[in-house]
Amino acid sequence: MTTDLIVCGLGPGGRALAHRAVARGMSVTVVDPRPERRWTATYAAWADDIPQWVPAHTIAATVARPVAWGTRRFEIDRPYAVFDVAALQDSLALGDARVVADRAAEIVRPRRGAGREAVRLASGEVLTAWRIIDARGVGRSPAWAEQTAYGVVVARERWAEPLFMDWRPDHGAGMGEPPSFLYAIPLGPGTCLLEETCLAGRPALSGAELRERLRTRLRCRGIELDGSEPVEHVRFPVQGGRPGHRRFGAAGALLHPATGYSVAASLAAADAVAASASIWPPTARAVHRLRTAGLRALLALPPSDVPRFFDAFFDLSPRWQRAYLSGRADLPGTAAAMAALFGKLPWRLRRTLVAATVGR
């Protein structure tokens, strides 16, 4: 039987798309090797990026004015929301969708015009639909920069101030070594996550390196870990997604290449994609290219200059910060934000960024 839509992959993007398609009354099949797998990563988003249809109970904590440190302290004038990941996953109910526990091995598109599409499963079974969306994420590659992190969950009374990003150099690494920052957010009323993060690296810092940096940093701030704390490991590519109407989530380039954020963008775009609307107008494609150039610039910065770069970014007006972080189709805002950031940097860094941005 040919269904309206097949979604390959049940991460946050794929599950959100299937959920919204079912809500529209479409016949939906979802394909994933482990459809019952529970999500374990921590997901967060700027509160104003989360669409209104997402239930309020899926938010575990909200930080009204998160703090960022480059070489000095900034308060970000924008609420930051941390998801209750289990509640978010459960809220994206699949309803009457057919769930197939298998791996999508090959997606076959019609050569000319519209028509049925097919997906061949690892088991050999072939499923057909009028539309097939690839939401299987992005595989790792040595050619692509990755984001890595190592975090521990501690009682909330052990940590006072939520930190969106803290680049202060008390993690024990040398000045010339790849940079990392501390991310410290509440997970609910009783716990918080303390995580050492490599924003983007090629190659990225390993979990073992980040673990030692986190322990050193926390020890400097009066916190000793005893090894019983729950641990979070993070590793995923921040490159490799391709814009297009047949891919979604990270596979469809909804992951911000310079920050690694994708969940809110996927939630916000799910209704449009379910309705077969385009989410990639020319302005969005141009913004994606500018963001990719921003990633190249970030990777090119000397490690010791990364905190100064973020001093300049968090010194931008909230309007320009939001344009760069969230304006997926806001070409004028993104370009203006990047120009304003460039203007705040010293000439030495400007030369580095120009060479990286226009190069390959």
TrEMBL record:
The gene is lcyB. InterPro entries: FAD/NAD-bd_sf. This is Lycopene cyclase. PANTHER family: OS02G0190600 PROTEIN, PTHR39757.
